[in-house]
Amino acid sequence: MEHESEGRILAQIERGLTSEDPDLAARLSTLSEQVSGAASGAGPAADPGPPERHWRRRATIILVVIALVGLVLTVVLNASSYETPTPPSTPTSAAAR
User: What domain of life does the UniProt record list for this protein's source (predicted)?
Assistant: First the structure.
């Protein structure tokens, strides 16, 4: 029951706004179409954007990958430098004679 009364109230508000400001009604209609088109994956909202944006996204991804590779190499190289080296073998008494 509540949903029906809320729907009626919203419809009355919408009719009042449409009669008072037709430009606003047209903008809201356009916005509603864009939102419903984006939800279905079609329409102008699904446009990925200008090529410049693709370039920026690609550059950002490349920089992040380079930074991650640098961090991994730093960790690996620092971990190998903390290993204790084996002491050199001491000559045996037979080899010293």
Answer: Bacteria
Domain assignment present for residue 97? The answer is no
Please provide the distance, in angstroms rounded to a whole number, between the alpha carbons at the two ends of the chain.
107
Q: Tell me, what's the pLDDT at 64? A: 96
Average pLDDT over residues 34-40: 73
Q: Which domain holds residue 42?
A: 1-47
Q: Which residues contact 34 (CB under 8 A, 6 or more apart)?
A: 43, 44, 45
The two three-digit tokens of residue 93, written as one number? 């008494």
Residues 18 and 52 reside in one and the same domain: no
Quick: pLDDT tens for 41-71. 554 545 556 666 688 889 999 999 999 999 9
Domain count along the chain:
2
